[in-house]
Design brief:
This protein has 223 residues and is mainly alpha-helical. The chain has one domain. Helices cover 79% and strands 0% of the residues. It is built from twelve helices and no strands.
């Protein structure tokens, strides 16, 4: 659990620094940073997406995940959460809380390091999650300088997911093969591409509704 806790704290602390930086940036600088992050996220998503070892599973996971996500209204609930937080806590800089939360959550919670890093942490070796904490901290600072403090909220799923995997390390380790991790990374990379397209204004994609694709892939691969 130590590695997961350090990772979550890195997101929070660096995220707050990013929010402070955001207040000092002109709109034109925010725009170019958003475009730069969008391009970088596209590149990262493509590199992860090509890791998939079963294209059919990827397609099924995205389609079924989108259907389920829309059915239960994941995106709508995220939007409502954003409005609720803005009303209760206040958003002085008009930052897109929901978008920041979803974007950061996908980036921080999807990928090979999440799985094998958390498993190793559960078995007593936190080194991978410490390295991931540094990477996520830098990313959190940059993202929050553009998307605001919604990025900080992603620390919650980071802690819950990685801490949960660490606690269940003994159970998950036997099925966490390279093929399994690559498949999840491929699906996660596809969702990250959707984030890049949204940030660049090419196509506004309801990314929240696609989130169940990751869980669906896990269950399909497991059974």
């Amino acid at each position: 659990m130590t590695g997961a806790l350090v990772n979550a704290l890195a997101v929070v602390i660096c995220g707050w620094l990013g929010v402070l930086v955001r207040k000092l940036l002109k709109d034109s600088i925010r725009e170019i940073l958003t475009e730069g992050i969008g391009v970088a996220i596209l590149a990262v998503g493509i590199l992860d997406a090509i890791k998939t070892e079963n294209t059919l599973l990827l397609v099924l996971s995205i389609v079924l995940g989108g259907f389920l996500g829309n059915l239960i209204g994941v995106q709508k609930n995220l939007d409502r959460l954003g409005v609720f937080l803005e009303n209760k806590i206040g958003s002085k800089d008009n930052s897109p809380i929901g978008q920041g939360f979803v974007t950061a959550t996908l980036i921080f919670c999807v990928g090979g390091m999440v799985i094998y890093g958390s498993i190793n942490a559960g078995l007593g070796n936190n080194e991978t999650l410490y390295i991931k904490s540094v990477m996520d901290g830098v990313t959190s600072l940059i993202l929050s300088s553009v998307l605001g403090w919604g990025v900080i909220l992603s620390a919650i799923p980071v802690l819950v997911l990685q801490g949960g995997i660490a606690l269940l390390a003994g159970v998950i380790e036997p099925i966490a093969t390279d093929a399994f991790i690559n498949q999840l990374s491929g699906i996660g990379g596809t969702l990250i591409i959707a984030i890049g397209l949204t940030l660049l204004g090419i196509k506004k994609i309801r990314i929240g509704d696609l989130l169940p694709a990751v869980l669906g892939a896990f269950l399909i691969f497991l059974f």
